[in-house]
Amino acid sequence: MIPFPTVDGLQALDERHAVFCERIEDPLALEHGKFHFSAKDNLCARGFQARAGSRILKGYRPPFDATPIRKLREIGGLLIGKTNMDEFGFGTFSTNSGFGIPRNPFDTERCCGGSSGGAAAAASLIPEHLSLGVSTGGSISCPASFCGVIGLTPTYGRVSRWGLIDYGNSLDKVGLLTRTARDLERYLPVISGPDAKDPTSQSQPVLDMRGEVATVAVPAEALVGLSPEVASSFAEAVKELGRNGVKVREVRMPSLRYAIPAYYILATSEASTNLARYCGMRFGVMNHEFDQGFNDFFSETRSEDFGPEAKRRILLGTFSRMVGFRNRYYVKALQVRQLIIREYRKVFESCDAVLTPTMPFIAPRFDEIARMRPLEMYQADFLTVPPNLAGMPHISLPCGYSRGIPIGMQAVAPQWAEGSLVSLARSWEESFHYRFPEVTA
Amino acid sequence: MKIGLEIHVQLPTRSKLFCGCSTSGDAPNSSVCPVCLGFPGARPFLNRQALEMGVLIAKFLNCKMSDRVWFARKTYFYPDLPKNFQITQYDSPLGVDGHFMVGEKRVGIWRVHIEEDPGRIRRVGRSGEEVAMVDYDRSGIPLVEIVTAPDMTSPAEARDFLTDLIIELRRLIGVTGEEQTMRVDANVSVGEERVEIKNITGLKNVERGLRSEVTRQTKMLAAKKRIVRETRHFDEERGVTMPGREKEFEEDYGYIGEPDLGTYRIGPLAASMAIPETPLVRAARLSKEWGIAAPAARQIVLTDWALADMFEALAAKVGGEAAMSWTMGPLSSSWKDLREKASELREDIIGIVTAVTSGKMTDSEGRMRISALPSGKEAAAPGEDAGDLDALIVKLVDEHPEVVRDYKGNERAANFLIGQVMKAMKGKYSSKVVAERMKMELEKRL
């Protein structure tokens, strides 16, 4: 065992760094149809480890490309790296990674948000860069908002999940984080489309990029529990939209408050089965202690290499699936999901989008996060979870800054209408100036 | 005594249930891919053919068919299960509440569903130093599971049920595996409490396992001991059931829907599906339609599907009884040779049998001609060199003046001599030729 990278490994790192720099510095690359992109570490790509932020997957090199990565590579995209994340997507601040914690480009004492924290940081830091992110319960919106970039989460089933390491399969969506609406226009059509390798992607209608957002609904329930700077920035943004000719209506969506509990039951139920496969054999971390029963063998690896949040969610999910509890929790949560979908549909009868702040507060500092209890963290997602639970497309756009720290707003559109969110992003960036952190080499 | 069975039969598809891997791997772990190895990021896509076979089976078993079905994850940890959950069907089987007739006995079918097989663990090496190796070639092989009501009342009945079921499935969906590949969980209760014998392979072992378990339970009841509800295993070598090594409490599989596979609307498919006639259904029909004994009908159909075709064609001409005796007699005995040319020889066979039953040909001649059919001797035309035939006929007619006398009043008298010639010539000439020449000779002498 050699405790440091081998010569080959170092060379590969060097080469990758050289290519990375070249791509970033070559202004003609784009004109030649080339561009660079990164992928959240739960998306599989040849030539890279796929660890999904978990030590249990250390060393796993998938033998195939995730469909969105394959499609981007096919049109000349160069994958320059994998971005850090909460272990398997379990978190709101990217502090639950087995491999260090990404820091907010606007203030390194603050978090990036999660779980696609590294993806948002990359999009914020690197000009002309496209980040592939993944959202299960708000993991694109949240970090986009905290890092001051655009985060688009398409409709569930719009982008193939082949090659995505599962968190909650009925909720997981691959999306984009970037600085400009132009990138969404360019790359959303590329990664979308039916894929025989993901049956849930096969019933989608053709992507229509022409939609518009003329009327937005603001649910009263979304304005409770906000920090003062988020509340005032959001109010200002709503006024600005009004000035741009967007009609704003206040609505009530009482069932939104049930989204968090329903989400955590469904997501953890699915996650606890998805994570069953990580047991120290076949891929990732290998357990070589063969002189024990298989239960002990599995438990050893899982005890050592899953982080505490992964263990918490496995326990939660396993509990919700148990005989006697299944109907009270899992089945009930499925019903709540239908209720929320119906409530959105009703609002969409008279509005093109539902508009809320993205997160109730700005990116917290790490010392603040250390004091939060799990339930408080879960509660922070109360605005990003509902559209995810409903499978509706949504976008987070920068809409203000508080002492230099970005604030985001989130628009939710009807199923398959992500095109209208892209046009909203385009018109918004014409009237609102985005700021990006200065980086010195 | 009550016996209920859970039967797993492999569906004969070329690729696995949720990936494109071949179902016939040769060397261990030669037919595997990221999907059937459960690699992170890989996900299942359904083999439609397997679903269709499952639907056909459920419909064949007279089940109430579901309109929509979906899959479920059954989670348990075991080294041969790559994802540590099995994709199966839980709250939406393909069909429920069916039945299957074993002769006159009706056995209820509780449910039919499809699922993936796990891999196989092989233990190699000497006892004490043995190593467990996992072969994932079987991982993802499509299975149909059929769950019966506890309607069987003896191990023999259970065996008859399985025998008949596999006969029907073989024809219905082309199950290729022998009955040895069938895996069965058997529930048996002699008294109040039931015991499950898990994972018995093969028909004979099911009966043996059940017998031994019935004996065990009967002895315990006689000794006024309490039978505990448990899972046992059948030790094939020793022929006895042993308590399972697993924990005693019922395992909680924590079923949830499989979110990677959608729902499948099978209602219209099931409704439009025609059930082809299966062997035992055909046997029952033949028995009823032509008034032949049930075992005979069964034997004809099980010998060969084409033999039963032959029977039906014959029966239409000569009636059930004659058709049966010809089918089970001369046709069966030379069927091995006849089988390949059965369709082209069909009219000849019908001609011969009709000739015999209408008295135009003797029975023995008919038999001889049928046995001569496959070698094609029938086609031999009498050439100029038929001198031996004419000589024999002259000789026989000389020896039997009484035939000449009888022939005057009844042409059928010639049959006796024709038979003699056929016998002596061993099928060298067709009966038609022999009859013609015999007639010529006899008529010369009138």
Quickly list its features.
heterodimer, A: 441 residues, alpha/beta, Amidase signature (AS) enzymes, ten-stranded mixed beta sheet, two-stranded antiparallel sheet, 14 helices, globular, disordered N terminus, B: 446 residues, alpha+beta, Arc Repressor Mutant, subunit A, three-stranded antiparallel beta sheet, 15 helices, 16 strands
Would you write up a description of this structure?
The complex is a heterodimer of chains A (441) and B (446). Chain A is of the alpha/beta class and 441 residues long. Chain A has one domain: Amidase signature (AS) enzymes. Chain A has 14 helices and twelve strands. Chain A has helices spanning 7-25, 67-74, 117-125, 141-147, 181-191, 228-243, 259-274, 294-305, 308-321, 327-348, 366-371, 374-379, 385-390, 418-431, and strands at 35-40, 77-83, 103-104, 107-111, 130-135, 150-153, 173-178, 215-219, 247-251, 353-357, 394-402, 405-412. In chain A, the strands form two sheets. A ten-stranded mixed beta sheet of chain A has the order 2-1-5-7-6-11-12-10-8-9, with helices on both faces. In chain A, strands 3-4 form a two-stranded antiparallel ribbon. In chain A, helix 7 crosses helix 9 (308-321) and helix 7 crosses helix 10. Chain B has helices at residues 48-60, 155-173, 203-222, 267-272, 279-290, 294-303, 305-318, 320-333, 335-338, 342-357, 363-372, 387-399, 401-409, 414-425, 431-444, and strands at residues 2-10, 64-65, 68-69, 72-75, 85-88, 95-102, 105-116, 120-124, 131-135, 142-148, 183-189, 195-201, 230-235, 240-243, 256-257, 264-265. Chain B starts with a strand and ends with a helix. Chains A and B meet through helix 7 and helix 8 of A and strand 15 of B.
Looking at the structure, the CATH topology of chain A is Amidase signature (AS) enzymes
Put simply, the count of helices of chain B is 15
List low-confidence stretches of chain A: 1-7
Q: Hey, roughly how much beta strand do the residues of chain B contain?
A: 15-25%
Query: How big is the Rg of chain A?
Result: 21 Å
Count of spatially separate domains of chain B = 3
CATH superfamily of chain A: Amidase signature (AS) domain
Placed side by side, the strands forming the largest sheet of chain B appear as 2-6-7-10-1-11-12-13-14
Strand order of the largest sheet of chain A: 2-1-5-7-6-11-12-10-8-9
* Principal-axes shape call of chain B: elongated
CATH architecture of chain A: Alpha-Beta Complex
CA-atom Rg of chain B in angstroms: 31 Å
Distance between the termini of chain A: 35 Å
